[in-house]
Specification:
There is one protein chain. The protein is an alpha/beta fold. The protein has one domain: Alpha-Beta Complex (Spore Coat Polysaccharide Biosynthesis Protein SpsA, Chain A), CATH 3.90.550.10. The protein is built from eight helices and 13 strands. The strands form four sheets. It has a seven-stranded mixed beta sheet with strand order 5-4-1-6-11-8-12, with helices on both faces. It has a two-stranded antiparallel sheet with strand order 2-3. A hairpin with a 2-residue loop joins strand 2 and strand 3. The protein starts with 11 loop residues before the first strand and ends in a 6-residue tail after the last helix.
Length: about 250
């Protein structure tokens, strides 16, 4: 029986926005990190705008620290014709655990896209969707080619692009983890059932040891995370450079 190819229109993105933002707490002590204003809007609004621009219509925002701030914002924010729901974790679940908590709200979608609410990787995802058309592929990991990976964990791949493992930070050129994943729904049922659950430390090692076929889509793209005061200070200029519609 032929199945229709997976596409952005059939997907839902879960955006992780529940972290404490410990390293920048002194800058914005009363806001969740993704809700920090950047270029006139909460940073997570730019993440949503990017993903919607990639054709994804449906979103679930996974909240934790000061969840009520984001809930109040999204209660009145236009959805642009798609759907947007929020879910709140009552205790820290880790990145993998937050995805599993949000999974019931994505039950009509396949695949499920996972992204971070405190980072932006402006990659063209069309190549990743093409990779996911192959029925044997369980998921796609977005990898960014950089000239110096001394600040980032590396992705080690086989010759055919299949993910082999996550490596530690080392200087020199490499492909790093962008923190954007496209998962077939069937793969979520193979996640370890534990909390807290880390994607990199728990989920991916378990999936790879279990034979899951995860392909790395390599690309060069602008990227920014707002996890340090220094990178947060660069965020306004980054948004103004890469988005046309920016508040004055």
């Amino acid at each position: 029986m032929m199945t229709s190819p997976l596409s952005p229109k059939s997907s839902c993105a879960v955006i992780l926005a529940g972290g404490f933002g410990t390293r920048i707490r002194s800058v914005c002590p009363n806001l969740p990190k993704p809700m920090i204003p950047v270029a006139g809007e909460p940073f997570i609004a730019w993440v949503l705008r990017y993903l919607a621009g990639q054709g994804i219509p449906n979103f679930v925002i996974s909240l934790g620290y000061r969840a009520e701030v984001a809930e109040d914002y999204f209660r009145t924010r236009p959805t642009g014709g798609g759907s947007l729901q929020t879910v709140r974790e009552n205790k820290p679940l880790g990145t993998g655990g937050a995805l599993l908590m949000a999974e019931p709200l994505t039950e009509t979608s396949d695949p499920v896209v996972l992204a971070n609410g405190d980072s932006l990787v402006l990659a063209d995802l069309s190549g990743a969707w093409r990779l996911l058309r192959e029925e044997s592929v369980d998921g796609v990991v977005i990898g960014i080619e950089v000239d110096d990976a001394s600040r980032y964990g590396r992705l080690e791949t086989a010759a055919d692009g299949r993910l082999r493992r996550f490596d530690e930070k080392q200087p020199g050129p490499a492909v790093i983890n962008a923190g954007i994943y496209l998962f077939r729904r069937r793969l979520l049922h193979r996640f370890p059932q534990a909390t807290p659950l880390s994607m990199e430390r728990d989920v991916f090692p378990a999936l790879l040891s279990g034979g899951a076929k995860l392909i790395v889509h390599r690309c060069r793209a602008p990227f920014l995370d707002i996890g340090t005061p220094e990178s947060l200070g660069q965020a306004d200029a980054f948004i103004r450079q890469h988005f046309r519609q920016v508040a004055a």
